[in-house]
Amino acid sequence: MINFSAIFSIIAFRLKEFFSEYQYSLLAPITTNILFILVFITIESYHSLSIESESFVYFIAPGLIIMIVAQESYDIPSVTLVNMKQIGSLNDWLLAPISRIEILISLLISSIIIGFIIAISNLFIFSFFIDMQIYNYLFFCYYLIIVIIFFSCLGCLVGILFNTWDTQSTFSNFFVIPLNFLSGTFFSIGYLPENLKFILYYNPYYYVVSFFRNCFNNDYTFQLQQNIYILFFIILSFTITAYVYFRGYNIIK
């Protein structure tokens, strides 16, 4: 039987931790995105920049939102688990009447809530600089959840398999950040040379960013084939992470 009380307790604990450290967990990513948007607004005021017949700033704003959500979705669970391993408090969760799969579900649900808080906060701040309007709220939420689940699964996997901060930051620097920057956040695929377009065509995260950006346009159309491709990787990442938690690999330091 699912221990809903324990799941709720872990979610409440993580939300309390998130808000108690708001200067790092919330203000820091918002400040980063404000700096990005101010830089590009300044550049656009001096140069006529446009992507696919629209303002360059309006083009990159949705990508900045989903980029910071992806980064925080990886960082928060991985940092939490590595820190708990370092101080030995993860053993308290393992001794509690809750399975490791339920721990994983708790971490994912709390990451989804935190990710939405970060996304909405950034969207609110961006509204002071540019005129942003969501035309499709359903897919706005859908693609946010997909991004959060994928990067949270990666964070949960790294946090449970490894015990050091070096490994946690290595995955961030050599996988999460390059994946964000090679997702079409700052550029359109039409501007890439033909021999480099495969980097985006075979990158499911590129389609997520592209479809999320389309939620801010009134001509959004649902692409079934690409969305099945995206879901395949989301299900695969969750399955691998759930299997590792179920088997209990390297749980105790």
Topology of this protein?
Layout lengths: L3 H17 L1 H4 L1 H20 L3 E2 L2 E2 H32 L2 H6 L4 H27 L10 H25 L3 H17 L16 H4 L2 H11 L9 H24 L6
Antiparallel strand pairs: 1-2
Structural features:
mainly alpha, 253 residues
Can you walk through the features of this model?
This protein has one domain (4-247). It is 74% helix and 2% strand. The protein contains 11 helices and 2 strands, in the order αααββαααααααα. It has helices spanning 4-20, 22-25, 27-46, 56-87, 90-95, 100-126, 137-161, 165-181, 198-201, 204-214, 224-247; strands at residues 50-51, 54-55. The protein has a two-stranded antiparallel sheet. Helix 3 (27-46) runs parallel beside helix 6 (100-126), helix 4 packs parallel to helix 7 (137-161) and helix 7 (137-161) packs antiparallel against helix 10 (204-214). The two termini are 28 Å apart.
Care to give the gist of this entry?
The chain has helices at 4-20, 22-25, 27-46, 56-87, 90-95, 100-126, 137-161, 165-181, 198-201, 204-214, 224-247, and strands at 50-51, 54-55.
Total count of domains = 1
- Largest beta-sheet characterization: 2 strands, antiparallel
**Sheet with most strands: strand arrangement:** 1-2
Number of strands: 2
Pairing-aware structural class of the strands and helices?
A: mainly alpha
Separation, N- and C-terminal Cα atoms = 28 Å
Helix content: over 70%
Order of helices and strands: HHHEEHHHHHHHH
- How many H/I helical runs? 11
* Cα-atom radius of gyration: 19 Å
